[in-house]
Amino acid sequence: MTTLNETSSCVAQYDAQAMPVSAAQAIVREWATPVTTVEHVHLRDALNRVLAQDIVSPIDVPAHDNSAMDGYAFAGTALEGPADTRGEIALNVAGKAFAGHPFAGSIDLTQCVRVMTGATMPAGCDTVVPQEAVTRDGEVVRFAAAPLRTGANRRLAGEDLARGAVALKAGRIVRASDLGLLASLGIGEVSVRRRLRVAFFSTGDELRSIGQPLDAGCVYDSNRYTLFAMLRRLDLDPIDLGVVRDEPAALEEALRTAASSADVVITSGGVSVGEADLTKQMLRMLGDVAHWSLAMRPGRPLAFGRIWSGGKPGAGEPAIFFGLPGNPVAVMAAFYQIVREVLLRMSGATTHPVPLIRAACAESIRKRPGRTEFQRGIAQRDAQGTWHVTPTGSQGSGVLSSMSEANCFIVLGHDQADLDPGDAVDIMLFDGLI
Hints:
With 434 residues, the chain is α/β, with parallel strands linked by helices. The chain has helices at 4-9, 21-30, 176-184, 223-233, 248-261, 278-286, 328-346, 400-405, and strands at residues 38-42, 55-56, 66-67, 71-74, 88-97, 111-115, 127-130, 135-137, 140-144, 154-155, 166-168, 189-193, 197-203, 207-208, 219-220, 237-244, 264-268, 287-293, 296-297, 301-308, 318-324, 357-361, 372-381, 387-391, 408-412, 424-429. The protein has 8 helices and 26 strands. α2 runs parallel beside α7 (328-346), α4 packs parallel to α7 and α5 (248-261) packs across α6.
């Protein structure tokens, strides 16, 4: 069994007391083992699930050569000869073809068939002239030959997807467009990975759940609600274990219960330096967990590793563990920058970096080199299509309203310093992420 220390020592820039975000991401990525259980679900239940195997097309799409537009189908040999010498072509209309109602007859080189978009190409036809390019007099159509080439406005069988080709690859998260594609192939059931189970709870004697009275010095627990929402947004199976008091017995029971019921355990609070942070002590007993100080703001303290339901390493069921900070904004920042990709990989999904957009600072931004910062911002585009971003004011890790007001992270790199108005900066839009 590979230990966390062994994995960490192989990563460049590893420093538990000042770890770059990229190093932390590399370490946690190595521990993302996908779930293996496969489920077979109806097509309508496959949205946002992870495909367990490649989807191979059982048919050609389209199934037949067909017309790409409304017009008249004819044999392209009528266009033979140099383009500058082609004159007007006159053809007799032999019949009609509609989508789902093909022309059953045959034609000669002097004839054409009236076709609608999607109609199967009649036998002997390989070219379509758009209806707006012809003049029709009774059953005769005339059009200029010069603009056309043989095969124009025709879609070939299998042009979209050939029989036997991979339509969707294993590891893909099924989207709305994929449901339509699968339906077009006549596929009504797909194999997907089971949903990743993620147990989470908050720690702290000062926390109260909604509906409880607030005693002096107490606050309502918001972290469980943001964690629940972020997990559901990823279509995972969240297991809410509530608020756990700073008591050794309660923490041990919660961690062991979480490890036995979930693939991943996430806690908020109890991972920073402090006399009451009992989570650290408990994790040393239950598993192989490291405590890091990330060169990141917000979200500096982070615990990561593996815990076992049996009460000691190797005993009972194992689960990947993330100990996030207690401050609400830090929880969200750490989740999206460190945790999110691991959860997707463990779900069996093929992951891609979250796209960054280049924007101009609308005002100056203070930044100390030596850490990566994820400031909250409001981004918008001007009339010329250029993105501009403005910080949401106070960037304190406890100011949750700044996350609600913002629509993006302003991503300030590890070595970046102060920025002036007009300077270019990367932004990570919340739309589709949060």
